[in-house]
Design a protein that fits this description.
Blueprint lengths: L2 H23 L17 H5 L14 E7 L3 H7 L3 E9 L2 E12 L5 E4 L3 E4 L5 H12 L7 E6 L2 E7 L5 E5 L6 H7 L12 E7 L2 E7 L19 E4 L3 H7 L1 H23 L2
Parallel strand pairs: 7-11
Antiparallel strand pairs: 1-3, 1-6, 2-3, 4-5, 7-8, 9-10, 9-11
Helix pairs in contact: 1-7
Length: 269
């Protein structure tokens, strides 16, 4: 092999390495953009998308309950809620223990209110529980007004998102998009077509997969999240490649060394 041929071979090897590296680093836009088929979807189909249904109160939920009466002092007595420790975070904070004021639903599905007693709220929506407590409070107070909501409506977002955390939310109408927004959206390494939802339904685990690239997500019964849902975003192949970047750099150095050796050998022939 003459010097010209060896140089040509060396350049070909280097070019092939560069091309392979570029191919490995490229990510198709089809795997990044959300709802890519939204322009072709029939509007009537979107009008029939999954409707929000109120979450059901379960044991270990913490409820914020406030009863307003004509006598503020008497209302203050029943509104004395205990502090409960829950896990929660925010867009700029890590998961941490937080003190949440509210009434704990015990294992029997009851909450206990001063002067009113135990009220069974398990299996009810917050609206139904509010009306039930208002009826019972009307026996003790004149024209009571009751406000009730979840104090520990929590969802956890894990995996390839910018801020993985457990998020305690004041609103029970939460979608998968809301949760991902709180977590700072997916990283470039997240698999958008295979997001996992883990749900605890009466002690039984449910698993579902959502494709953020498709508008079919709006028809999924898992589009609206429930308290204690877990959202997990898997890493894509590019993440694996990025994890092996050190090895790729090593291969590049070795390729350069081999090129120099080939040139050196060719120069002595």
């Amino acid at each position: 092999m003459n010097k010209y041929s060896s140089t040509k071979l060396n350049l070909s090897i280097s070019l092939a390495i560069v091309i392979l590296a570029m191919m490995a680093s490229c990510v198709s836009n089809k795997k990044i953009a959300y709802f890519q088929d939204i322009q072709t979807v029939n509007q009537a189909k979107l009008d029939n998308a999954t409707k929000f249904t109120e979450p059901i109160i379960q044991p270990d939920d913490i409820l914020s309950i406030n009863i307003f009466t004509l006598n503020p002092q008497s209302g203050a007595i029943v509104n004395q809620a205990a502090s409960n420790t829950v896990l929660g975070g925010g867009a700029n904070t890590a998961v941490a223990a937080q003190q949440v004021s509210g009434f704990l639903v015990d294992r029997n599905g009851d909450v206990e209110l001063s002067l009113i007693g135990k009220v069974k709220v398990e299996g009810l929506t917050t609206y139904q529980a509010r009306e039930l407590i208002r009826e019972k409070a009307a026996v003790v107070y004149k024209e009571p007004n009751v406000q009730l909501r979840f104090a520990n409506f929590k969802v956890s977002v894990l995996g390839e998102v910018n801020v993985p955390s457990a998020y305690t939310l004041p609103n029970e109408k939460v979608t998968i998009l809301d949760a991902l927004s709180l977590a700072g959206d997916l990283t470039i390494y997240g698999r958008r077509e295979n997001v996992l939802i883990v749900r605890d339904n009466n002690g039984r685990k449910e698993f579902a997969r959502l494709d953020l690239n498709s508008s079919e997500i709006f028809n999924s019964p898992y589009y609206y999240l429930r308290q204690n849902d877990v959202v997990y975003v898997e890493p894509n192949k590019r993440k694996v490649s990025a994890s092996n970047s050190a090895q790729i750099q090593t291969i590049g150095v070795l390729a350069s060394v081999i090129s120099v050796i080939v040139l050196a050998i060719s120069s002595f022939k």
